[in-house]
Design brief:
Layout (H helix, E strand, L loop, with lengths): L1 E5 L4 H12 L3 E6 L2 H10 L7 E6 L21 E4 L11 H23 L5 E5 L14 E2 L9 H4 L2 H23 L4 E7 L2 E2 L17 H7 L14 E5 H13 L7 E4 L2 E3 L1 H11 L21 E2 L2 H7 L6 H13 L4
Parallel strand pairs: 1-2, 1-4, 2-3, 4-5, 5-7, 6-12, 7-10, 8-9
Antiparallel strand pairs: 9-11
Helix pairs in contact: 1-7, 3-5, 6-8, 8-10
The structure holds NADPH dihydro-nicotinamide-adenine-dinucleotide phosphate.
NADPH dihydro-nicotinamide-adenine-dinucleotide phosphate binds next to α1.
Protein name: NAD-dependent epimerase/dehydratase domain-containing protein
GO molecular function, one term: oxidoreductase activity, acting on the CH-OH group of donors, NAD or NADP as acceptor
InterPro entries: Epimerase_deHydtase, NAD(P)-bd_dom_sf, NAD(P)_dehydrat-like
Length: about 325
């Protein structure tokens, strides 16, 4: 089979690419420039039988941006769409985040419908942000839940990113319902993701957002004052997220479903404790020992669909953190 994978430079996409190649798929990644595309191809495992190439899509928010990229010879069987802005702050919420997230999603679906009739399924990287409604939490979250974030709130930079994920995913399901394309859809609603940084990463200043918390601990940025983990945080390992994408693509029953992909809870004191126990040399950079700062009766998650349909066996926090730290320390060598 042949797969188009968007956002090839990304943290999550780099692991999806590894899994796709390991499962024997031919992969074309999209990147915003030739320089970035070449870097991905170079860093991918180029051993016999593993094939990856790239195509440039400079601006995913532009009308018809994916019209050329979805056409390939031989043609694509699947598309995995991960490209979307993920930062803590956006100067211009609409232009910098909401447009690329939402128009990027509807745009690629339109291009597939118009120009790639062989595509059977599309998997979109949505987010737990499209599920959770802080601070009005449910008791237990699962795939039946949609974030209550509004378009008005999206104009507040603090809420822009999570709103972009909700509105982009919603637009995708709406497109499926109204345009009735040949392909079906599955979404991966993964939570805050830890794991080894991409091999193709040039330097840690380009580190993806969700690994930055571990990066800050490793670099001593939280030594004096550990940020509170208020109110409650969940994590998942990037390799579980990558496998979920591949399974969501290949398992027939995954079509038409969202998957809440979440491995467990974490707190910053817990992260510091794991680093302390596994990397004694980093002791001088770590904050003093502390307890979990969670309220006692916090909300819960139900990830059973991801286990039953996709067969995900979740990686524990310790392994995820240790492997992330090792990948960050490589930059100090
Ligand atoms: P990265 O920042 O590492 O990857 C983002 C990818 O999207 C990069 O390839 C980036 O390209 C591309 N991208 C961002 N903005 C644009 C744009 N305007 N036009 C074209 N491409 C763009 O983050 P992640 O790997 O963490 O994120 C990948 C996906 O996973 C996103 O959809 C994100 O919302 C989702 N997600 C992430 C979670 C996490 O905790 N990490 C949790 C839940 C969902 P470039 O390198 O050129 O900037």
């Amino acid at each position: 089979g042949k797969v188009l994978l968007t956002g090839g430079t990304g943290f999550i996409a780099s692991h999806v690419l590894d899994y796709l190649l390991d499962h024997g798929f031919d992969v074309v990644v999209t990147a915003r420039s030739d320089e970035k595309g070449q870097r991905i191809v170079k860093s991918a495992d180029q051993s016999v039988g593993k094939k990856v190439s790239y195509v440039v899509v400079a601006d995913i928010a532009k009308e018809g941006a994916f019209d050329d990229a979805v056409q390939s010879d031989p043609p694509f069987d699947f598309v995995i769409h991960t490209a979307s802005p993920y930062q803590l702050h956006f100067d211009n919420p609409v232009a910098d985040c909401l447009d690329p997230a939402i128009k990027g999603t509807t745009g690629i679906l339109k291009s597939i419908k118009a120009f790639a009739p062989t595509v059977k399924r599309v998997v979109i990287t949505s987010s737990s942000a499209a599920i959770l409604s802080p601070p009005n939490h449910r008791k237990v979250y699962d795939e039946s839940s949609w974030s209550d974030v509004t378009w008005d709130l999206a104009m507040n930079p603090q809420h822009t990113y999570r709103a972009s994920k909700k509105f982009a995913e919603k637009a995708a399901w709406d497109f499926l319902a109204t345009a009735q394309p040949n392909f079906d859809l599955a979404t991966i609603n993964n939570t805050y993701t830890f794991g080894p940084v991409p091999r193709s990463l040039a330097d840690p200043s380009n580190l993806n957002t969700s690994n930055r918390r571990i990066f800050d601990l490793v670099k001593g940025h939280m030594r004096e004052a550990i940020q509170p983990t208020a109110p409650v945080f969940t994590f998942v390992d990037v390799r579980d997220v990558a496998l979920a994408h591949v399974r969501a693509m290949t398992v027939p029953e995954a079509g038409g479903k969202r998957f809440y992909v979440v491995g467990g809870f974490f707190s910053n004191p817990k992260l510091a404790g794991i680093i302390r126990a596994n990397f004694p040399a980093l002791e001088g950079r770590l904050p003093v020992e502390g307890d979990d700062d969670f309220p006692a009766d916090h909300w819960a998650f139900d990830n059973s669909r991801s286990k039953e349909v996709l067969g995900i066996e979740y990686t524990g926090l310790e392994k995820s953190v240790v492997d992330t730290v090792e990948s960050i320390l490589r930059f100090e060598e």
